[in-house]
Design brief:
Layout (H helix, E strand, L loop, with lengths): L1 E3 L3 H4 L6 E5 L2 E5 L8 E3 L1
Parallel strand pairs: 1-4
Antiparallel strand pairs: 2-3, 3-4
């Protein structure tokens, strides 16, 4: 999982990317392409 300052650009890289908020953190998850996974901060 990559840790990024900004997830906005990463979200547009694949159409199945989802922006999810869990426990005051922002995550990008993708059920089809598992490599697109990141968290902010």
């Amino acid at each position: 999982m990559k840790v990024r300052n900004s997830l906005k650009s990463l979200r547009g890289r694949h159409r199945d990317n989802q922006l999810v908020r869990r426990k005051r953190r922002v995550y990008i998850i993708n059920k089809k392409q598992k490599r697109y996974k990141a968290r902010q901060g």
